[in-house]
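Just wondering, can you check both lines?
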Amino acid sequence: TKILTAEGERPITDEDIESVRRISDGMASDALRVLAFAKKSIDTVPEDDDADVEFGLTFIGLVGMIDSPREEVKAAIKTCWDAGIRTVMITGDHRITAVAIAKELDIWHKGDTVYTGDELDEMSDNDYNNAVRTSSVYARVTPEQKLKIVEALKRTGEIASMTGDGVNDAPALKAADIGIAMGLSGTDVAKEASDMIITDDNFTTIVDAVKEGRRVYRNIQKVIQFLLAGNISEILTIFIATLFNFPAPLLAVHILWINLATDTLPALALGVDPPEADVMKHKPKKSGTLFEKALVIRVITQGCFIAAATLIAFFIGLRDDLPSGQAMAFCTIAFSQLFYSYSQRSNTKSIFSKGFFENKALFVSVLVSAALMLVLVVIPPVREVFALSSLDADEWLMILGLSLIPTALIEIQKAIWHFVSKYSHRRQTGGQHAR
């Protein structure tokens, strides 16, 4: 009811209240959390806890506090945006303060909406679903409203991740697809309700985890693609020979050796391949899309390329005798898989765009596998065990050339795929602009 001024206390007026609100809004727009202070003198402390002492106070002033975001957070949020991950701020702060912080961090973009907890309470489920599609900032939100926001995001088909540290965040953390608790400031309840704990309480660590997850996901696809294409090439080679009643291009011991030595070492090395530079510029994949359509097409076509080269080598060697044909087929399919293991590091970029020594494990595994193959073919006692004949220089040149053909075809396939995708994207973008 009163206000403290330089001249002393006096009754507060409507003009004073409007002035205080204007100053408070100005401080909030500067990303300050604003606290109002007031005082009241009493003779004794009331014994009744329900006594109304918060009446007849004298307004003293406003205090603004700021918890400046870390410098790296803005860059991390930009990385999330490029990766197709929408960052949403849910806070108990004043609406103006929340928007100011969101603008500073590039969370709020033009066209985004802002809702307060009171506004959310007045919405139906359908309105809630529409709100979460466009809103990037929620202010003055209660724990119950946090939970409703997470549930609405999931209803609209989003994969929702929620971060929190307090006891009141536990329901939302539990309901989210991925609950993330703070390891330093987080309560035990929040940690138990979450799926992941960030030990350094740093938002950028979450982004690093996403990047590592994408690296692992793509490396799994690389390994699967490499192994399946190799197996399909072996199956096709034997199947075509059997179908047309040709002699067996490969013996059982040859296939066993390829699967144990030539396939295993490069596959293990592909599993630890470093992430591509643009891994965080790709849009997220839907869950359950490990065997996506493009991967299946690549596996089949690449398997056909290797099988074709193997059969050609077999028939060239068969002009001399069957052991020569089998030796050439065996070496061609083995070295083809070693060469094309490098093309598996990227499904869109050229083999020359990535350093040959960037993945040292792959380089060593290819060398070791090639050395083991040479031991099998060059050393007579070992060669006899695998029922192979010796090969002259011309035959080795043919093997080398035929082994490189599948990799060359795969690189051409990449270039065509990249051109078609780029052209399709331009047409789609142009159509959107036209509309």
Observations:
- The two ends are 59 Å apart (CA to CA).
- The longest helix spans residues 393-434.
